[in-house]
Structures are given as structure tokens and as C-alpha cells.
Specification:
456 residues, Tetracycline Repressor, domain 2, elongated, 3 domains, disordered N terminus, 6% strand, CBS-domain
């Protein structure tokens, strides 16, 4: 695998590219550069400085640059800077040559003045297709679908369908699925390229199409779309309105981007980071992203400190109790985070349906009880052999067992509750669950200590 990666990285010789650019040898540069995959071209473009990019705009056509922008992987806020350094007409042409869904993704990251400018000078057909998608809410099926697909009337023959396919193929994002529509453009069925190839030319499409088509509503959340494509192993999924009119399709390459985006977003929230930091961000930018969460957690931490202050008399009488506070809080936090991870993953993958949520809670409660009791017994033994204090060991062990049980139950219940409230369950992030469990474990531990203080 490492050797394959090394070979791929060396396919595009960056030194040669810079040398040809420096010499101004346009033909030699174009011949070498365009012989590589758009991914490698995009990698070169991303690493290039402003001066090199200006040369690229001179040497490459808008259509060739459109292929690069469809493969590019830069931060969303970088698109605005990249398009500002181009001629307006050139940038507009790039967008018109891109697949509609990719162009919309880029335009969503630009300011309104830039968007209006590009759409104004763009050819009317491309501009209208982009406008049709821009008004859909972000993170829905409509916002990630493309309108470049092949549709054929269900009363046509295989021969006429193949003619339609040949004419539409150069601009279609995929030709392996051909969608069948009626006279009102309602989705009626689907045929594959294989179906068309093996069928007799005079056969009616209606006779060979599959009329049991899986589709999604245009307002469907992109996570649900990704789940459907994963479950059914589709290459593309049709998007319809509430009357079943075919509006567009979502291809598997777009879903891969969605899965990557959603995974990064959920991981960011689980770490209590509002937006995943990237390595090219400066310390000031990264700090601004993290500070709101840290300040909020500071206030929650003060609540924990205030709770400990309420039990100051108990701690003064038996100072040894304070030694075990980090142990109890830490074990409760760890068990709560484990339960949280299981619940959030189950919700994200769709494994947790309505009927299995109660089952999950009972399972986690049982898990918390078993792990809590075992850990509690181990702690009793350790405290006794370390401090020769059986009563304190039993107190600490009971607190550990109770804290782990409650923390595990809370770690699974809270994301389910938040999901029920139509909020992203990932906001029940690790640090929040940990802080909450700190409060719970301290209340349990010092509450038990205060109750049994007379026996210590």
C-alpha cells in the first residue's frame, strides 16, 4: 500500500511543472499537466502560491479548471479567496462547466455579491439550473443533488432510449442508471445500462423497467440519504418532490463527501469543538473556535467546585475522603463517555430505531450495574490493603459502583433524549457528559460520606 501511494504521488512531477511554468512553455506544460488525473492536478493547484495559480489561469481553459475544482479539497472559506483572484468571466465559466451540484457547493461558500455577479454573466441555462438548487435548504437532498441525469419516457423503445442516452451521456454525471418518467415527468421506473444493452431494440421501456423505485424527497436530510445509499448499495438515488416529479439524482461520490463531512462534524462535537480545527489555521483562529466551549465548561466546572464546598465539613472531618474524589469522578466520566459513544453511533448509523431505544437503555443499565459492582469490589480491596480502612473502602466502592451505573445510564439516555428533541445528539459531547458525571459522582460520594459520617 505504501509503495502504491508513493508511485501515485510521484506521477505528477511538481518540480517539472514549476520548471515548465517558469520557462513559459505552454504546450509542454499543458501536455504534461493534463495527462494526469484531476486529483493530482488539484493537489498541485492546492499547493501552488498565488503567482503560480495566476499562470495556471492563463494556461488552462475554464473547462479544464472546472475538472480541478471538482476534485479540489480546500477549506470552505478558501473558495472566496480563490475566486477573488480570478477574472470574473473566467470564474463564471468555471462554474458553468462544473456539475451543477458541485457548482452549488462552491457558490454556497461565496458572498452574495460574488454569487450574483457570476450568475448574471453565466449562460442562462446553467444559471437557471444553479438557481434552482441554490434555494434548497443546506444539508438536504435538494442541496446535494445534481440535475445532470438521463431520463427517458416510459412509452419509448430501447432504440430511442439508446439515442437519448448517447446524446445526454457527455453531460450526465452517471449513465449506468437511466430513469423512466411519464408524460408529467413523474418518476415511473428505472433501467440500467445493462438492461438496455441486452434488450431487443424494439422492446418498450415499460416492459423492461423496474417500477419499484427507491427515491428520496427533496427535503430529506442528507444523513438519511447517505444511509439509504449505503443500505441499498446504489450508485445513484433519484430525488423527487411531494408529487413524485423527478428533480435530480444523488450519486455515490457525493455521498462519500457527505459521510466524511458528517463524521468530521460529529467528531468535532464529541470533542466539544464547534468546527474541526485544520492544520493550516493560525493559533488565534483555532483559539476563537475553542474558547466558547471551554468557557462554558469552566462555568460547569465551577458548579462542581461549589458542590464540593457544600461538603467542606465532611471533608474536614475525614480528609482521606478527598484522595478518592478524582478516582470516582474519572471512572464515572469514562463509563459515561463509553455509553455516549455507543448511543451516538447507533443513532448516526440508524441502528437504533424507536422500538430498540428502550432495549438499549436496559442493556446499558445492565452493563453499568455489572461493571460498577465489579469495579466497586476491586476498589474496596485496594483501599483496604492500601490504607487498612475497610469502612472507607466500602464507602468508596459503593460510590464507584453507584457512579458508574448512573453515569452509564446518563451517557446513553441523554443523546436519545436530545435526538428525540430533533437536535443533533453529538452535541451531548464527551466533555459535557464528563462534567455532568463529575457532578453526579461527587453528589453520590460525598452524600454517602455525610450520611455515614457518624460510623467513620
Amino acid at each position: 500500500m505504501m509503495e502504491e501511494t508513493k508511485i501515485r504521488d510521484e506521477e505528477l512531477n511538481e518540480e517539472l511543472m514549476h520548471e515548465l511554468l517558469g520557462k513559459g512553455d505552454v504546450e509542454a506544460f499543458r501536455e504534461e499537466f493534463l495527462s494526469h488525473h484531476p486529483y493530482d492536478q488539484a493537489s498541485f493547484y492546492e499547493k501552488a502560491d498565488g503567482e503560480t495559480r495566476q499562470l495556471l489561469y492563463q494556461y488552462l481553459s475554464p473547462k479544464e479548471m472546472a475538472d480541478i475544482f471538482e476534485a479540489i479539497e480546500v477549506d470552505d472559506d478558501e473558495y472566496e479567496n480563490l475566486f477573488k483572484e480570478m477574472d470574473t468571466r473566467y470564474a463564471s465559466d468555471i462554474l458553468s462547466y462544473m456539475y451543477t451540484d458541485d457548482a452549488v457547493d462552491v457558490l454556497n461558500e461565496l458572498n452574495k455579491d460574488q454569487v450574483a455577479s457570476y450568475l448574471t454573466i453565466m449562460d442562462k441555462e446553467s444559471a437557471q439550473q444553479i438557481k434552482d438548487l441554490l434555494h434548497y435548504e443546506e444539508y438536504t437532498a435538494g442541496s446535494i443533488m445534481t440535475t445532470e441525469f438521463v431520463a427517458i419516457p416510459k412509452n419509448s423503445t430501447v432504440r430511442s432510449a439508446m439515442n437519448i442516452l448517447r446524446n445526454a451521456a457527455p453531460n450526465a454525471e452517471t449513465i449506468y442508471y437511466v430513469f423512466v418518467i411519464d408524460e408529467d415527468r413523474k418518476l415511473s421506473g428505472i433501467v440500467t445500462l445493462r438492461d438496455l444493452i441486452v434488450a431487443d431494440e424494439d422492446t418498450l421501456i415499460e416492459a423492461i423497467m423496474n417500477d419499484r423505485v427507491v427515491s428520496v424527497q427533496v427535503s430529506e436530510d442528507q444523513e438519511e440519504v447517505a444511509r439509504m445509499i449505503k443500505d441499498y448499495d446504489f450508485l445513484a438515488l433519484p430525488v423527487v418532490d411531494f408529487q413524485d416529479h423527478l428533480l435530480g439524482i444523488i450519486t455515490v461520490d457525493d455521498i462519500i463527501d457527505v459521510l466524511d463531512e458528517e463524521a468530521s462534524d460529529d467528531y468535532s462535537k464529541l470533542a466539544a469543538v464547534s468546527d474541526m480545527d485544520t492544520f493550516d489555521r493560525g493559533p488565534l483562529t483555532a483559539a476563537k473556535k475553542r474558547l466558547p466551549w471551554l468557557i462554558l465548561l469552566t462555568f460547569l466546572g465551577m458548579l462542581t467546585a461549589n458542590l464540593m464546598g457544600m461538603f467542606e465539613a465532611t471533608l474536614d472531618q475525614v480528609a482521606l475522603l478527598a484522595v478518592f474524589i478524582p478516582l470516582i469522578a474519572g471512572m464515572a466520566g469514562n463509563s459515561g463517555t463509553q455509553a455516549l459513544a455507543v448511543a451516538v453511533r447507533g443513532i448516526a448509523t440508524g441502528d437504533i430505531e424507536e422500538e430498540s431505544k428502550l432495549k438499549l437503555l436496559f442493556r446499558e443499565a445492565g452493563t453499568g450495574l455489572i461493571t460498577g459492582v465489579i469495579c466497586g469490589i476491586v476498589v474496596v480491596g485496594l483501599v483496604y490493603f492500601w490504607k487498612s480502612e475497610l469502612l472507607i473502602g466500602m464507602l468508596v466502592g459503593t460510590a464507584v459502583a453507584s457512579s458508574i451505573f448512573v453515569a452509564t445510564l446518563a451517557g446513553s439516555f441523554i443523546p436519545l433524549l436530545i435526538h428525540r428533541m430533533k437536535i443533533d445528539p453529538a452535541v451531548a459531547s464527551g466533555p459535557f457528559i464528563t462534567t455532568l458525571n463529575d457532578i453526579i459522582s461527587i453528589l453520590i460520594y460525598l452524600g454517602l460520606a455525610t450520611t455515614f459520617l457518624t460510623n467513620l
